[in-house]
Amino acid sequence: MKELIKSLVDVPTLRISLLIALGIYTVLLVYNTNKNSKFALDVERIFVFFVLFCLSKVNMAVLMHFNPAYLVEPPLNAVLANLQVVILGFMILTLGSRTSHFFTKKMLPSLFMSGLKNPFFWTLILLSIISAFWSDTPLITFKAGMVLVALNLLSLYIVKQYDWLNLFWFLRWNLVLIASLSMVIRTTTNGGGLAGITFAKNELGGMMALSAVLWILQAIYESKHRWFAWGIVAFSVSVILQAKSTGAQFIFLVLLALSALTSFLKKLKSYYAVIVVASFLAISIIMYFVIEANLEHIVEATGKDLTFTGRRQIWEDSWDAIQNRLWLGYGTYSFWQGWRGLDNPAKDWMSGFWMPPNSHQGFLDIWIELGLIGLILFIASLLLNLVQAVLKLTTAKGIESILPLILVVCVIMTNLSESKCLRPNFFWTLYTLTAVKLSVDSKPLSTDKN
């Protein structure tokens, strides 16, 4: 089949005909989107869904190349990796009637508001660009910083065009698509856990933990098709179990407990609700590290596969690397560089034929790449987002009041065992969307119950 397609494409007349047809359809698409606002909205929703799906860094032919990470590190296929820039530019042109209004009327005021309400988050992104000055690979670091800026601006566009309920819809159905495809494309990783269309079982498990909780909220708050929502919950939980990820199972329990706690939190004054959530999060983090420290004994008792194998050693070694550049780090994308071979700054971490792609701990990796200053900025941003999410919970109603808090806590818990910070992936995109949305929507914290 591949040979047949290649032989057809190599025919000059057929190639010219395809280009002409593509040009005609392009003109028709641009014309209709700029004349019909409803059609433009439908096209935009498809585009947003597609971009969010690709940002999940799915391990699928062609689509895997459309993740912005491959604009930074050496891509698997340079032509396909650069094609995503063409696609993005084409969509901006196609949706001119909507994007022009955003760029001329909404972008600068929204950018100013977001920077004012969460300066730590935007300063962290700025620091990732500036770190090119002390990086050993300045071009890669600079490109990484610009990709993060582009992701922030894309998030700013999405959150200004869509409310929380729309974001809730995009996330739920993206996760359903990932779960469904993972059941068909059943790739596995260490321990035999299901990875599906993702690159690791812990990644798929973490996504499904969030999926299960989001669909539980959908089943509770929306009476329409409730049976279908519970079916998706059961489906998501089954994928978690097939992934055999202890970390994902723990994240699911934490998010589930937090969801159950929201009814109580809504009755509290905002100030006290923040204290309760902070205490809940602190207890969850302590429990995680207690489990991780005693995981070997737990595995012996339960007979499960060890999912934290080797991580403690990597964490200890990472601390040694941190000491060398304590305050400013090595620069974004400048430490874990497996593609550089013997020039990789992390080459001493190689075990046999395996090179860890990161320290498997998001907070450690931020410290390695952007130093203690970057870590402080990230933690300050997290805490501010947590406060804004709690304020949203106590002042709004329905699913949209709960979603920001669930997403912030999900990102925190995921980065305890995985490294998802400052990379264009599903969980960092979650954090970016949440941080930007909360900052443009936030109100002052009040001690009075509204």
Keywords for this entry:
450 residues; 0% strand; disordered C terminus
How does this structure look, described?
The protein has 450 residues and is mostly helical. The protein has 2 domains: 2-100, no CATH class; 117-161 and 245-441, no CATH class. It contains 17 helices and no strands. It has helices spanning 2-9, 12-35, 37-55, 78-94, 96-117, 119-130, 138-161, 164-184, 201-221, 226-243, 246-265, 270-293, 295-302, 311-324, 362-395, 399-417, 426-441. Helix 2 packs across helix 3, helix 3 (37-55) packs across helix 8 and helix 12 runs antiparallel to helix 15 (362-395). The N and C termini lie far apart (64 Å). 41% of the residues are buried. Residues 302-307 and 445-450 have low confidence and may be disordered.
Structural class: mainly alpha
Describe the oligomeric state of these chains in a short phrase.
single chain
Task: State the helix count.
Answer: 17
- The poorly predicted ranges are 302-307, 445-450
Rg from Cα: 22 Å
Question: What's a quick, concise take on this entry?
Answer:
The chain is mainly alpha-helical and about 450 residues long. It contains 17 helices and no strands.
Write the layout of secondary structure elements.
Layout: H1 2-9, H2 12-35, H3 37-55, H4 78-94, H5 96-117, H6 119-130, H7 138-161, H8 164-184, H9 201-221, H10 226-243, H11 246-265, H12 270-293, H13 295-302, H14 311-324, H15 362-395, H16 399-417, H17 426-441
Helix pairs in contact: 2-3, 3-8, 4-5, 5-6, 5-7, 5-17, 6-7, 6-15, 7-17, 8-9, 9-10, 9-11, 9-16, 11-12, 11-16, 12-15, 14-15, 15-16, 15-17, 16-17
